Amino acid sequence: xxxxxxxxxxxxxxxxxxxxxxxxxxxxxxxxxxxxxxxxxxxxxxxxxxxxxxxxxxxxxxxxxxxxxxxxxxxxxxxxxxxxxxxxxxxxxxxxxxxxxxxxxxxxxxxxxxxxxxxxxxxxxxxxxxxxxxxxxxxxxxxxxxxxxxxxxxxxxxxxxxxxxxxxxxxxxxxxxxxxxxxxxxxxxxxxxxxxxxxxxxxxxxxxxxxxxxxxxxxxxxxxxxxxxxxxxxxxxxxxxxxxxxxxxxxxxxxxxxxxxxxxxxxx
DNA sequence: ACACTAACCTGCAAGC
DNA sequence: TGCTTGCAGGTTAGTG
Length: 268
Prior knowledge:
CATH topology of the largest domain: Helicase, Ruva Protein, domain 3
Helix content: 25-40%
Radius of gyration: 20 Å
Oligomer: single chain
Order of helices and strands: HEHEEEEEEEHHHHEE
Number of domains: 2
Strand content: 15-25%
């Protein structure tokens, strides 16, 4: 369930169980993810303490004593706390056993995620733009970076060098809230409208993280399939249905191979 | 430097 | 019922 709010929710859910624990074992059943799981990762990490758990973009970073493990959930990945060696589900690919006799289990049907070890900075973290919830990200930056960009605004705000963590759902929702058509050229948007858009990106992400917080308490006991954000979506997944604001039929188009729903009346 | 496509995978729903 | 097609929360490698 991985857009940024889901990654953040996952992080908060597992942190209390894994921070300051020692890795006693790591089992990789399926090493073929987006990139192959680092060879011999189990030998590298066994015995190391997990010192801190952080997030950058949609990556989860387990900071160990001698380096870090970079985890991405791809499109279909999830992490949950289980009893060590409890029944393996289909597509459970990795289990990390901890000194507190709990285990972190990685599940990912489509295998678009990753588990990579590095003793230095991970390649994947280079060239990433600012975090959307940080003060570095605002309308001024969007305006500045977009001046010569002819691409549509939706793929533009989903570009990781512009800003990280804005996936298809929240890009769609933030554009609706801002009254901006997803296919408008990025260079044809005023500074004022970009300020509104930046504000709405922050708001929609923060609200989704808050909602994730409510499912947080039963996160580790759940089956890992929470659907907590769906109720507050205005446009995503609602093509052909009436706009919540003006009743106009919502239109759907494809931009950069991603479905984009918008209201032709409210968004210009 | 930028824009766009194909590709990595499996599962599911819709259409025939 | 069974087969085929297209689509799904992401990101990068390759092409023009």
